[in-house]
Amino acid sequence: MNLPVSRKNLFFVVLAVVAIVAALAAYFSLKESTDTELSGEFVLVEASHREFDGSPALALTFSQPLDARTNYDRHIQVFEMPADSKKLAAKPALGSDERQEGDGDSEDRPLQNPNAKVSTAAIDVNTLGGKLVAGAWVVGENPRMLFFPNVKPDTRYVIKVNHELALRNGTKLKADASYSILTASVAPAFYFASNGMVLPAKQNGGLPVVTVNVPEVDVQFLRIKPDQLPKFLDSVISAAPRKAELKRGEAEDDDRPYQDNSRKFRGAVNIYELDTLRTMSDSVYLGRFLTEKRANKRAVTFLPVEHIKELQEPGIYVAVMSQPGRFRYDYQATYFYVSDLGLHLRQFEKAADAYVSSLITGKAVPGVEIAWLDAQGKTIAHGETDDDGRASFAERPNKAKVVLARKGQQLSMIALKEPALDLSEYHTNGGTYKPVRLFAYSGRDLYRPGESFTLSVLARDADGQPVPSQPVQAILKRPDGKVHFTSTWQPDDSGYYHRRIDVPADAPTGFWKLELRSDPADTVAATVFSFGVEEFLPERMKLDLTAANAPLSSGKPFRIQAQGDYLYGAPAAGNRLLGVIQHERSRNPLPSKLPGFEFGDSTEDTIKGRQELAEKTLDEKGGAEIDVDLANVSKRRSPFTVRATVSLLESGGRPVVRSIERTWWPAPVMVGVRPLATGDYVRENSNVDFEVLRASQSGELKAGQALPVRLFREERQYYWRFEDQRGWHSGFTETDELVQTATVNVPANGRGKLTLPVKYGRYRLEISDPETGKMLRYRFYAGWSARADETQGNRPDRVALKLDKPAYAEGNTAQLTITPPHAGEALVTVEGDRTLWAKRIAVRGSSHVMSIPIDKAWKRHDLYVSVLVLRPGNSGEKVTPTRALGIVHLPLERGERKLMVALDAPKKMLPETALKVRVKVPEAKGEQSMVTLSAVDAGILNITRFATPDPHGFFFGKLRYGADQYDVYGRLIEKMPGVRGKLKFGGDNTPKTTRSLPKKVKLVDLFSGPVKLNANGEAEISLPVPDFNGTLRLMAVVSGGGRYGSQEAEVTVAAPIIAE
Fold this sequence. Notes:
Helix content: under 10%
Number of domains: 9
Shape: globular
Number of strands: 71
Structural class: mainly beta
Distance between the termini: 104 Å
């Protein structure tokens, strides 16, 4: 039938449109089938040699998508054939030995190596003489591909695939298959071998370079100008991270902005970044170096930088490396300086000490000039080390940016921008040392708007002795940080201050802070008294929750005993008890013993549960028993915190709330891991170091041998999708790619070390424990906000220290037992707000005991003994110099200055009568001492868990360690085997005011003011008790000269008849 032309054209147009639509539908259907098996035959399409995550791998391509969670190893065997069998007898399979012209590299498809040869001929797939290879097959980003990574170059392999290999739905291959693959030679590569900055002099043999099939390299050396050192170091060293700068969970967001703008000049650096060095440096040498020739294998060659005249002037050098005859967008770069000076710096609040030791011998180096440089590179302070290698500075310059050590042709340096050594594992916390210490206390720390209270302050020296009368500056700050008032207080003759503090009627609620300074010029207050301002009602009941202290485990119940009582003495019989159980993953169930270590499975981070407890009624004694069902956590793979929050209801329904929590452990011993980097971010294209341990529920470290390790890269593919109900919205699909397998050994009572290479993106580290069957999973991110490598070596090895006594008197000699992880030269110091005593000794790898005389002038309580053990380098054994650190508090005996206080008060009394209390301090007989007594409603104190003021603990308790430590040992270029390279040529935040609520409940807070003890060390104090039913807590604070005491007691106040 003949159609008109117009209708005929229309027919073909419609036909074309239909064909296009069908093709698009087929395309998008194929794209959506990544995780869905297509209909059709399941066959093995081809075998090939490809790259998998940058390393050579054998690859199998199938017609259907595979399941990444299935183990295919049992169905595939790989044989390595002898070296003399490389020649294939048959012609290679079509397409296996060459790629079609125009095929480009694609991120969506692993690169097939054009030099590899593949055969299926029977003579080639014969495994006679072959060796079975151990390894694991991994499903690739394309789910139709299996990879066997880390194969050898220029080696023939035979792959045997069993027909039992199946898809998730059970579909199996039609037949067995065999392939012979001759792998290609390795592509040329070259890079600097270390991320360190300090090249130990006369030890390493030179600057290490790694090459693969690159016979020679060109290296240009740039020397940083002396006046540009601070600027350069500022650009390559990241500052110490702020607290809570990176919250957990931020690593899950790919759209976080890049926050670290410092240039690294290390690794692959583009030409534009390198060009910024032109104003900071001078080009001093360009040379071509011959490298070690090892065909298809990694070789380490040392560039002899110490023997090149142009590089012998002290300073930082930037080395820029390229391959002769190749011109790329970026170059391999690193920066370094050569030195034998191991510089160690300790900065106190005002003072500083620099110690210099030889990296070769570990011994002190005298006569080293120590210079403090400002931002312009000018020296603003300097000194010289003595025979112990120490230079002391009574006043450290606050504007310094770099500390430079120099002697002859040697130098070493520390950028003060970098983080101090991580001392989180050492018990160094406490209050801040001040020459004049101010003990501030009151009867409670929670007040209503419009209330007034009396604040008491005792001024003493660093050892709790009275100081001459002097004014104290007081600054009261509101919750928003604004100053409410500034005042100067004067003491009485005994050094006691007391002031009435008026809380405004419209005071913003929140935490107020009263800062007290004996020196108004101090930036840090001597004491901060914090108190809350809230509208509240005192509690009228108390609730105690008790349970066994042991960690929870499978098969053991979490049983809680609850006891409720009215504060006027009667049991809360018949009152209702409500409760909620919550559970969430505990990343570190041992934070004080093993800070920074993570246990369990990071995939359980989002698992949180909440369960209401059945209502209970207290028995006639006010007791009840609560059994917590652990079924929700017993199936978990991580430690979980189980928290019970229990509410005891008053007759009117107002609750008294208390909580108790325990940690559930899925196994008696678990694997823990801690990255040596800061936070969950590491540098891309770097080696990441981890510490690995096995810990029991009590924190005891256990041994573990050959724990299997797997490193996955988690790849997310984001997309946009339109739905009628939701409109446009984004989502992602995620696939896992196994990039590294290894094992790690954990010594008994110690930690194993694990180093893994990463590129860019999300990673998941898995470590299995064959003994328990449990697996650790830890997620981290490589790239973006990662800190520079200079910030990752700041966690030293530990030296175990033990003192022979719990405390020491002046003139005693302390016996210190030192157990170092290695032998070496030890620097032993006693420190407060400066170094008070120092000595160098030689220690062996076993325990060493030394004596430390307690100087009579050390009348302070921020004393610490620190031991720095320096292990010298050894070029013969390829040992890199390192250090280990131990810190222990040195307590002074002050038990004789504790006054024993007794309170003689009635156990029970009537309201609206006088409370008479006799305070007895027998040790204060014949001395001038005073006491203050508070009587406060326990229902108020229970809200904030207020502790009775303890002046003895304040003045004689442990203060925090006063030094920040820095050194170069974490930035040394490590030693490694290699050969010396030959030179070829070259020469809303405004707080709302509070509306005061009606004061229907009167608060009881009675204070005696200062009362002098009589000659017998006694005082009788009478306090008028108002109309009140409940419990009063008596709190007495006694001070006399340099001795102190405190005591508490409870008095029940109850009328004959109480209506509740």
